[in-house]
Amino acid sequence: MTTPAQGLHTHVLDTLGLEIAAGEHAPGQVLRTDELAQRFDVSRTVVREVVRVLESMHLVESRRRVGVTVRPAEAWNVYDPQVIRWRLAGADRPRQLRSLTVLRSAIEPVAASLAARHATPEQCAELTERALGMVATSRGHQLEGYLQHDIAFHRIVLNASGNEMFARLGDVVAEVLAGRTHHQVMFEDPDPAAVTLHVRLAEAVREGDAAEAERLTKEIAVGALHELDVLAP
Questions:
Q1: 24 and 86: one domain?
Q2: pLDDT confidence of residue 1
Protein backbone atom coordinates (compact mmCIF):
# COMPACT_ATOMS: atom_id res chain seq x y z
CA MET A 1 0.00 0.00 0.00
CA THR A 2 1.36 3.41 -1.01
CA THR A 3 1.56 5.97 1.80
CA PRO A 4 0.85 9.69 1.17
CA ALA A 5 4.57 10.44 1.55
CA GLN A 6 5.48 7.76 -1.01
CA GLY A 7 2.84 9.16 -3.36
CA LEU A 8 4.33 12.65 -3.11
CA HIS A 9 7.84 11.26 -3.66
CA THR A 10 6.70 9.38 -6.77
CA HIS A 11 4.85 12.41 -8.15
CA VAL A 12 7.84 14.73 -7.75
CA LEU A 13 10.27 12.13 -9.10
CA ASP A 14 8.17 11.36 -12.18
CA THR A 15 7.50 15.03 -12.92
CA LEU A 16 11.15 16.06 -12.69
CA GLY A 17 12.36 12.94 -14.47
CA LEU A 18 9.98 13.53 -17.37
CA GLU A 19 10.94 17.21 -17.57
CA ILE A 20 14.68 16.49 -17.59
CA ALA A 21 14.29 13.69 -20.14
CA ALA A 22 12.24 16.01 -22.37
CA GLY A 23 14.91 18.73 -22.21
CA GLU A 24 12.77 21.18 -20.25
CA HIS A 25 15.72 21.70 -17.90
CA ALA A 26 18.86 22.33 -19.92
CA PRO A 27 22.21 20.74 -19.01
CA GLY A 28 23.92 22.93 -16.45
CA GLN A 29 20.67 24.44 -15.19
CA VAL A 30 20.58 24.68 -11.40
CA LEU A 31 17.47 23.47 -9.58
CA ARG A 32 17.05 24.98 -6.10
CA THR A 33 15.72 22.60 -3.48
CA ASP A 34 13.74 25.32 -1.71
CA GLU A 35 12.09 26.33 -5.00
CA LEU A 36 11.26 22.71 -5.78
CA ALA A 37 9.77 22.24 -2.31
CA GLN A 38 7.60 25.31 -2.85
CA ARG A 39 6.60 24.33 -6.37
CA PHE A 40 5.44 20.83 -5.39
CA ASP A 41 4.25 21.82 -1.92
CA VAL A 42 6.40 19.15 -0.28
CA SER A 43 9.04 19.13 2.43
CA ARG A 44 12.72 19.59 1.67
CA THR A 45 13.21 16.03 2.90
CA VAL A 46 11.05 14.73 0.04
CA VAL A 47 12.98 16.89 -2.44
CA ARG A 48 16.32 15.61 -1.12
CA GLU A 49 15.13 12.00 -1.46
CA VAL A 50 14.03 12.67 -5.04
CA VAL A 51 17.35 14.32 -5.84
CA ARG A 52 19.21 11.28 -4.49
CA VAL A 53 17.26 9.02 -6.87
CA LEU A 54 17.92 11.35 -9.82
CA GLU A 55 21.60 11.43 -8.86
CA SER A 56 21.73 7.63 -8.88
CA MET A 57 20.49 7.78 -12.48
CA HIS A 58 23.11 10.45 -13.27
CA LEU A 59 20.43 12.92 -14.39
CA VAL A 60 21.59 15.52 -11.86
CA GLU A 61 24.46 16.17 -9.49
CA SER A 62 24.47 18.04 -6.19
CA ARG A 63 27.20 20.45 -5.18
CA ARG A 64 27.57 22.43 -2.01
CA ARG A 65 26.86 26.12 -2.43
CA VAL A 66 25.73 25.48 -6.02
CA GLY A 67 22.61 23.34 -5.82
CA VAL A 68 21.28 20.56 -7.98
CA THR A 69 22.69 20.75 -11.50
CA VAL A 70 21.12 19.01 -14.50
CA ARG A 71 23.60 16.76 -16.30
CA PRO A 72 23.88 16.32 -20.10
CA ALA A 73 22.13 13.33 -21.70
CA GLU A 74 25.47 11.63 -22.40
CA ALA A 75 25.94 11.21 -18.64
CA TRP A 76 22.55 9.59 -17.96
CA ASN A 77 22.18 5.94 -17.05
CA VAL A 78 20.27 5.12 -20.22
CA TYR A 79 19.78 1.50 -19.13
CA ASP A 80 17.78 2.50 -16.05
CA PRO A 81 14.16 1.38 -16.63
CA GLN A 82 12.73 4.65 -15.30
CA VAL A 83 15.00 6.73 -17.53
CA ILE A 84 13.88 4.63 -20.50
CA ARG A 85 10.24 5.15 -19.54
CA TRP A 86 10.68 8.92 -19.22
CA ARG A 87 12.50 9.19 -22.54
CA LEU A 88 9.84 7.13 -24.30
CA ALA A 89 7.19 9.53 -22.99
CA GLY A 90 8.80 12.49 -24.77
CA ALA A 91 9.04 13.86 -28.29
CA ASP A 92 12.24 11.90 -28.91
CA ARG A 93 10.31 8.61 -28.67
CA PRO A 94 10.92 7.35 -32.25
CA ARG A 95 14.70 7.71 -31.99
CA GLN A 96 14.74 6.18 -28.50
CA LEU A 97 12.62 3.22 -29.61
CA ARG A 98 14.85 2.63 -32.61
CA SER A 99 18.01 2.83 -30.49
CA LEU A 100 16.64 0.32 -27.98
CA THR A 101 15.34 -2.01 -30.70
CA VAL A 102 18.75 -2.03 -32.38
CA LEU A 103 20.26 -2.90 -28.98
CA ARG A 104 17.80 -5.79 -28.67
CA SER A 105 18.62 -7.00 -32.17
CA ALA A 106 22.30 -7.19 -31.22
CA ILE A 107 21.77 -9.03 -27.93
CA GLU A 108 18.66 -11.21 -28.08
CA PRO A 109 19.70 -13.48 -30.98
CA VAL A 110 22.84 -14.46 -29.07
CA ALA A 111 20.79 -14.92 -25.89
CA ALA A 112 18.33 -17.15 -27.77
CA SER A 113 21.17 -19.25 -29.14
CA LEU A 114 22.52 -19.73 -25.61
CA ALA A 115 19.01 -20.45 -24.29
CA ALA A 116 18.69 -23.31 -26.78
CA ARG A 117 21.81 -24.81 -25.21
CA HIS A 118 21.12 -24.10 -21.55
CA ALA A 119 17.36 -23.77 -20.94
CA THR A 120 15.93 -26.09 -18.30
CA PRO A 121 12.82 -28.20 -19.03
CA GLU A 122 10.86 -25.83 -16.78
CA GLN A 123 12.04 -22.79 -18.74
CA CYS A 124 11.18 -24.49 -22.03
CA ALA A 125 7.69 -25.30 -20.76
CA GLU A 126 7.13 -21.74 -19.56
CA LEU A 127 8.44 -20.33 -22.84
CA THR A 128 5.95 -22.49 -24.76
CA GLU A 129 3.16 -21.45 -22.40
CA ARG A 130 3.95 -17.77 -22.96
CA ALA A 131 4.13 -18.22 -26.73
CA LEU A 132 0.69 -19.84 -26.69
CA GLY A 133 -0.52 -16.98 -24.49
CA MET A 134 0.67 -14.56 -27.17
CA VAL A 135 -1.31 -16.52 -29.76
CA ALA A 136 -4.44 -16.44 -27.57
CA THR A 137 -4.26 -12.67 -27.01
CA SER A 138 -3.13 -11.65 -30.50
CA ARG A 139 -6.68 -10.99 -31.72
CA GLY A 140 -9.54 -8.86 -30.48
CA HIS A 141 -7.53 -5.84 -29.35
CA GLN A 142 -6.07 -7.58 -26.27
CA LEU A 143 -2.79 -5.66 -26.36
CA GLU A 144 -2.35 -5.47 -22.58
CA GLY A 145 -2.73 -9.22 -22.20
CA TYR A 146 -0.45 -9.78 -25.18
CA LEU A 147 2.13 -7.41 -23.70
CA GLN A 148 2.35 -9.39 -20.44
CA HIS A 149 3.00 -12.63 -22.32
CA ASP A 150 5.48 -10.91 -24.66
CA ILE A 151 7.48 -9.41 -21.78
CA ALA A 152 7.55 -12.72 -19.91
CA PHE A 153 8.61 -14.58 -23.08
CA HIS A 154 11.63 -12.36 -23.67
CA ARG A 155 12.61 -12.39 -19.98
CA ILE A 156 12.68 -16.19 -20.07
CA VAL A 157 14.92 -16.19 -23.15
CA LEU A 158 17.36 -13.78 -21.50
CA ASN A 159 17.34 -15.70 -18.20
CA ALA A 160 17.65 -19.08 -19.91
CA SER A 161 20.79 -17.91 -21.72
CA GLY A 162 22.70 -18.56 -18.51
CA ASN A 163 24.46 -15.21 -18.93
CA GLU A 164 23.79 -12.90 -15.98
CA MET A 165 24.58 -9.80 -18.06
CA PHE A 166 21.87 -10.69 -20.58
CA ALA A 167 19.46 -11.56 -17.77
CA ARG A 168 19.88 -8.07 -16.27
CA LEU A 169 18.56 -6.57 -19.52
CA GLY A 170 15.12 -8.03 -18.86
CA ASP A 171 13.85 -4.74 -17.40
CA VAL A 172 15.20 -2.81 -20.40
CA VAL A 173 13.37 -5.09 -22.83
CA ALA A 174 10.21 -4.88 -20.71
CA GLU A 175 10.24 -1.06 -20.88
CA VAL A 176 10.74 -1.12 -24.65
CA LEU A 177 7.82 -3.49 -25.17
CA ALA A 178 5.60 -1.59 -22.71
CA GLY A 179 6.52 1.78 -24.21
CA ARG A 180 5.77 0.55 -27.71
CA THR A 181 2.33 -0.62 -26.60
CA HIS A 182 1.37 2.28 -24.33
CA HIS A 183 2.43 4.93 -26.85
CA GLN A 184 0.56 3.26 -29.73
CA VAL A 185 3.65 2.20 -31.66
CA MET A 186 1.98 -1.16 -32.25
CA PHE A 187 -0.64 -2.36 -34.69
CA GLU A 188 -4.10 -2.80 -33.12
CA ASP A 189 -3.52 -6.54 -33.34
CA PRO A 190 0.05 -7.91 -33.33
CA ASP A 191 1.53 -9.01 -36.64
CA PRO A 192 0.54 -12.70 -37.13
CA ALA A 193 3.97 -13.43 -38.62
CA ALA A 194 5.67 -12.10 -35.48
CA VAL A 195 3.44 -14.22 -33.25
CA THR A 196 4.27 -17.32 -35.29
CA LEU A 197 7.99 -16.54 -35.02
CA HIS A 198 7.70 -16.53 -31.22
CA VAL A 199 6.01 -19.94 -31.28
CA ARG A 200 8.73 -21.31 -33.55
CA LEU A 201 11.41 -19.78 -31.33
CA ALA A 202 9.96 -21.57 -28.30
CA GLU A 203 10.12 -24.81 -30.30
CA ALA A 204 13.73 -24.19 -31.35
CA VAL A 205 14.79 -23.55 -27.75
CA ARG A 206 12.96 -26.67 -26.57
CA GLU A 207 14.63 -28.75 -29.28
CA GLY A 208 18.08 -27.33 -28.52
CA ASP A 209 18.49 -25.88 -32.02
CA ALA A 210 20.80 -22.93 -31.28
CA ALA A 211 21.26 -21.82 -34.90
CA GLU A 212 17.53 -21.79 -35.58
CA ALA A 213 16.80 -19.96 -32.32
CA GLU A 214 19.30 -17.26 -33.28
CA ARG A 215 17.92 -16.97 -36.82
CA LEU A 216 14.31 -16.68 -35.65
CA THR A 217 15.19 -14.00 -33.09
CA LYS A 218 16.96 -11.98 -35.78
CA GLU A 219 13.79 -12.24 -37.86
CA ILE A 220 11.71 -11.00 -34.91
CA ALA A 221 14.07 -8.01 -34.55
CA VAL A 222 13.82 -7.17 -38.25
CA GLY A 223 10.03 -7.23 -37.96
CA ALA A 224 10.12 -4.91 -34.94
CA LEU A 225 12.31 -2.42 -36.82
CA HIS A 226 9.97 -2.56 -39.82
CA GLU A 227 7.02 -1.84 -37.53
CA LEU A 228 8.85 1.25 -36.25
CA ASP A 229 9.46 2.39 -39.84
CA VAL A 230 5.70 2.28 -40.42
CA LEU A 231 4.36 3.59 -37.10
CA ALA A 232 7.16 5.85 -35.81
CA PRO A 233 9.12 7.08 -38.84
A1: no
A2: 44
